[in-house]
Design a protein that fits this description.
- This protein is an alpha+beta fold.
- It has a single domain (about 5-170), classed as Gcn5-related N-acetyltransferase (GNAT) (Aminopeptidase, 3-Layer(aba) Sandwich), CATH 3.40.630.30.
- The protein is about 25% helix and about 35% strand.
- The longest helix has 16 residues, at about 105-120.
- It starts with a strand and ends with a strand.
Length: about 180
């Protein structure tokens, strides 16, 4: 089983035992502020179930890794990737943290470990990330991890009845 470690974090694939964290995080308005409108329990269950199957580079679902504090085991959130262009060895990355763990470097540290795994462990050539315009924290995380803004897609995302631009970031893993 995949295990990624950093000085402060331990990450491993989501299992059925992680349901409570997944449910809690998807019911935390501040954590979802730039992610999605509130979801029904059935929608949350569907998202959870879609991330449980074994992941491989040919899979269409997300590789979802639970982020835990390395020493205490506290559950902090999730990070992961999904293939968007397997023929080009390109994946999209994402992360979602409990609001009380945001702004503490957890997203940056976990994303750096995921980038290293994508390059060295999976042989990927590039990564992409989509951020809702206004989510300055995520933009900053991506920039610290070497992503550059590639393009803006105007009014691509509807959140709480308001249209937002999507900001598409890119990271070349071959340099």
């Amino acid at each position: 089983m995949l295990h990624l470690h950093t000085d402060r974090l331990h990450m491993q694939p989501l299992t059925s035992n992680d349901w409570q964290l997944f449910l809690t995080l998807h019911n935390e308005p501040e954590a979802l502020r730039y992610v999605c409108d509130p979801l029904s329990r059935a929608q949350i269950e569907e998202r959870f179930a879609s991330r449980l199957p074994h992941w491989h580079t040919g899979a269409e679902h997300w590789l979802c890794l639970v982020i835990r504090a390395r020493h205490s085991g506290e559950e902090l959130g999730f990070t992961g990737l999904r293939m968007i262009a397997p023929h080009a060895a390109q994946a999209e990355v994402g992360y979602l943290l409990r609001s009380r763990h945001q702004g503490k470097g957890v997203a940056t540290e976990s994303l750096k470990a995921l980038i290293e795994h994508a390059r060295e462990g999976l042989g990927l050539k590039s990564l992409q990330a989509t951020v809702t315009d206004g989510n300055h924290g995520s933009q900053h995380v991506l920039e610290k991890c070497g992503f550059v803004l590639e393009r803006r897609v105007e009014q691509a995302f509807r959140l709480n009845g308001e249209d937002f631009d999507d900001l598409i970031f890119h990271r070349d893993l071959t340099v």
